[in-house]
Amino acid sequence: MRINRFSAAILLGIPLIYLIVFFVTPLGMVVVDSFSNPAGELTLANYAAVLGEAYYWQVLGYTLWIALVTCVATLLLGYPLAYYMSLIEHRRTVRRVCFILILMPLFTSNIVRSFGWIVLLGREGLVNETLLLLGIIDRPLRLLSTEVAIIVGMIYVMLPFMVLAIASVLQNMNGSLREASRDLGATAFATFVKVTLPLSAPGIVAGTLIVFTLSISSYVTPRIMSGGRSVVSSMLIYDQFMLVFNPFLGSAIAVVLLVTSFALIVAYTLIMERRPGRGGAS
Predict the structure, then answer these.
(1) Is position 217 within any domain?
(2) Rounded to 5 degrees, what angle do the CA atoms 107, 112, 117 make?
(3) Within the chain, where are the H helices?
């Protein structure tokens, strides 16, 4: 059934207007503010301050490091989970239960989940109490307000996105290809490396892109889990807007973060597009 041009314009126009009003316009305002000063004059002073100060580069590097570690860790944890739910477990009820368990953390806010980790990782939390009970440690460890705490919290928040992205590809994979590989004498490991892993690459790419972009802009989890001891770019931007009341410098930091992440995502996408054996198993 074909639709006329008016109906097509309505279907396209509504989301387009929404994007323009709630995405393009605010982003444009941030970009304009990044080139402005309190007097309303155009200036490059904000970018000179951001790009010329080593502190901002350190914060940006730390932000990228947290996002990268989170991305790699969620991939290493999420792929086996997605593989099990999609290719090993064939009982529909068990699959549904697994997906519900994966999605359950998304039913609560990041704040609630982060405070839950504070209870677990605190000096008198479950982790320290268990280690003390087993005699592994003599006194409670400082687990909160550390880089490990930030990464653990980030992994917990981002893992469902990675699992769902990879599982959606594995579930739609042609099972006859793996069966043909086994019939030709390939071992289970060789079948995974030569067939399953290459065919699941789109899910890996989608999952890593989602996790990386969400991690690089995450604010709540790093703020709560670090206790203010570590600073990422999102925290710096918030402080400039809400505490220092310098939206112009905050906008410049936001634009630098946006451009940097966009460049990294484009480079990663191009590398994955040009990888050997793309598009099928060898």
Answers:
(1) yes
(2) 115
(3) 5-19, 25-34, 45-52, 54-83, 92-103, 110-121, 126-133, 147-171, 175-183, 188-191, 197-199, 201-216, 220-226, 233-242, 247-273
Q: Is residue 229 part of a domain?
A: yes
Residue appearing with tokens 């990782």: 121
Place of tokens 């309303």: 40
* Tally of domains within the chain: 1
What tens digit of pLDDT does each residue of 46-68 get?
Answer: 999 999 999 999 999 999 999 99
Domain span including residue 82: 54-94+145-274
Token pair listed for 198: 């290459």
Residue 245: the pLDDT is: 93
Low-confidence ranges of the chain (pLDDT < 70): 1, 276-282
Using alpha carbons, list the distances in angstroms from residue 190 to 1, 76, 184, 224, 278. Answer: 46, 19, 11, 44, 17
